[in-house]
Design brief:
With 226 residues, the chain is α/β, with parallel strands linked by helices. It has 2 domains: 151 residues, SPOUT methyltransferase, trefoil knot domain (Alpha/beta knot, 3-Layer(aba) Sandwich), CATH 3.40.1280.10; 56 residues, Trp Operon Repressor, Chain A. A hairpin with a 2-residue loop joins β9 and β10. The strands form 3 sheets. Strands 2-1-6-5-8 form a 5-stranded parallel sheet, with helices on both faces. Strands 3-4-7 form a 3-stranded mixed sheet. The longest helix has 19 residues. The protein has 7 helices and 10 strands. It is elongated, with a radius of gyration of 22 Å.
Length: 226
């Protein structure tokens, strides 16, 4: 998988994209994540990519020309499954979406910034808009990093134990059950006996029950009625 991220602040992505699972996936050749500075695609000598909005509203707006230039340059090199824009009013990013995106080959993520982007970009160049939550960030860089992390970790081979990703929260619309490790007792706080029993069928039943109870208490919205 290749992920091309277009941003006005590439330095914000240097750390998050170059450590842990994302780094290992790239080192293994399973993923390639390339950050592009939008200012490299502008045609004015001051490398300006924004201007005042028509209509007198406060704030600055990313111009269409540098974005069009950047996307066109990338599309000359390869075909893309999706051209994504990170926006507070996009489709809410969740685990099923991450699962689906992990099967794609090439995607572009355009990071929003300032007051927003010229709406013609969204009308003519973007194929999918994604929000990571109902709040506003300074820019879409952290959202792009979150999307990249959630997607790349699902690529086979990115995680040493692939079953681990399949048992994460939200994979079955349930929160994950509690997990414990050694020591079995600490300061009088004990690990549930069932987990020490060695009876795998009963352990699995307990885990499912715990997942259901935690989801009902903490995220009842996930328990959708058919």
């Amino acid at each position: 998988m290749r992920i091309d991220i277009i941003t006005v602040l590439p330095q914000m992505l240097t750390g998050p994209l170059d450590c842990s699972i994302l780094k290992r996936a790239q080192d293994k050749g399973l993923a390639e994540i390339v950050v592009h500075n939008l200012r490299d695609y502008t045609t004015n000598k001051h490398k300006r990519v924004d201007d005042y909005p028509f209509g007198g509203e406060a704030g600055m707006v990313i111009q269409i020309e540098p974005v069009d230039n950047a996307i066109a340059a990338l599309k000359q090199q390869r075909e893309y499954d999706e051209v994504i824009f990170t926006s507070p009013d996009g489709e809410l990013f969740d685990q099923p979406m991450a699962n689906q995106m992990s099967t794609l080959q090439n995607i572009i993520i355009l990071c929003g910034h300032y007051k927003g982007i010229d709406y013609r970009i969204r009308e003519h160049l973007i194929t999918k808009e994604i929000s990571i939550g109902d709040y506003v960030l300074t820019g879409g860089e952290m959202a792009a990093a979150i999307i990249a992390d959630a997607v790349v970790r699902l690529i086979p081979g990115a995680i040493g134990d692939e079953q681990s990703a399949l048992s994460d929260s939200f994979q079955d619309n349930l929160l994950a059950p509690p997990v414990y490790t050694r020591p079995a007792e600490y300061k009088g706080w004990k690990v549930p006996d069932i987990l020490l029993s060695g009876h795998q069928a009963k352990i699995d039943e307990w885990k499912l029950q715990q997942a259901m109870e935690r989801t009902k208490a903490l995220r009842p919205d996930l328990l959708k009625e058919d």
